[in-house]
Amino acid sequence: MKLFSSTIILISTLLLFVLPISAQKISYYNNPEFNPYGSLIYRPGTNIHSSVRSYNMNSIYALANVDSLLYDGLKVPKGKLNFWQRIFHDDLLKWQDDDISIKINPLFDFGVGKEMDEGKGTWNNTRGIFIEGTFGKHFYFYTDFLENQSAFPNYMDDFVHERKVVPGQGRSKEYGQNNHDYAQATGFISFNPAQWFNIQLGKGKHFIGDGHRSLLLSDVSFSYPYLKFSANFNKVHYHVMWAQHRDLNIDPVLESNDARYLEKYSASHYLNVNIGKRLSLGVFESVVWAAQDTMGQRNFDLSYLNPIIFFRPVEYSLGSPDNMTMGLNAKYIVGNNSAFYGQFILGEFKLDEVFSGHKWWANKQGFQFGFKSFNMLGINKLDFLTEYNQVRPYTYSHRETISNYGHYNQELAHPLGANFRESVTKIKYQFRRIVFSGEVMVAMYGKDFDNNISYGKNIYQNNQKRPGEYGHTIGQGLKTNLLYAEGSLSYLINPRNNFNIAAGLRIRKEQNDLETANTQQVWFAIRTSIKSIYTDF
């Protein structure tokens, strides 16, 4: 492909500037419930670019002993560990010499539960493995594979049947009666050609922001292929990423002949600057275009290959056929371990329409405001987060459905799509190996209930089917209220892969004028918890 030939040229050029540096390692702890680095990252003066996840481990190594963060307050056997002791306390297998290091750990989630409203048994059977390592001074790699079979609570079942995918985990195929079989593989190689530069090539997810949600780019959808070029100059972080996405909504006739899913591409920039010891400001832009649209077969458009050009003038020069998204991210650290944060997202903008008060349909905007605190009230490992999100109708959608801001039948930003208001509050407390987590989420949104009319929530509906040009407000359509609450208690066994035993209660109520859907689920699991899997939608 043209993209990969260009990549080879880019890498070859950068090799001219190779310096004696270490490979850039990336944190694989993406589950906030068990992330050991939060209280360090949000200290004033650390100069870590916290809005770019997964975190750059080289920056964390420069500030602290990682093992001391992982095993803080935990007793482990001294001396060389045998195989069985490593299962509970360390990497299962590891090999290291001067040039190569490799670590291998299991991934699993064996769980059972009961969905009380319908008397349905739920269960999960996940087996997998992850491997990470370095080759020489410049290369780091990570890969994992998960094979799953599950029986979900009612609201997740409805999601899978509607969208044909398990939230964040790929396409589902039927397994027995009303059960699901699915798999996921992710991996990337990270190459440091010079002191300040990094190149990643792989398949995975990304997150930009400091909150529980992101309105810019989130990790709620399935993994996707990407090429990412990053530059870190002390207080400045900049990256450009090109990615390939897929749309599962193909013609059923074609699907019966094993047709490939429709392809689309995205290119995005993110520039983040740490100002002083406490303030951080970031600017984001992304453009999505279909591999084949009304203009014909485009594939990867070389117009978006330039890593430092602004996309809006390029998109306009092409006749404005593509889906542009722009936004801001901000963070201000208060005290020693707390921060206010926020985002602003902009799809389309006409100044006169914004201030006219007529509520034009293409006023595609949203914002986030939140607060998070680690070691809150001086209590060690008491963490708290609360945030508010709202997004106007039709944000992230497009006149060509395939060009929406989505991948694999899920959103690339907020899991509720658009046309919503939401409040999320989370609390976590850890005492040695015991971890308590709680969450309450309340949302109001306008549901799309007619396939022939788009009210602006479902980004996979054509926004040309809207009911008029003006008068569009958040909650239009079938006004729906959602309450989600979950609490869990877990016992951490091995922090290397977040091996833990957990039990919890999940309550969900979705209500509108047409129906009320209740979920009350109790569950128990023996699991590893390094990935972000979202069930609060």
TrEMBL record:
Q: Which InterPro entries match?
A: Wzi_sf
Superkingdom per UniProt: Bacteria
Q: What is this protein called?
A: Capsule assembly protein Wzi
Q: Which organism is it from?
A: Saccharicrinis carchari
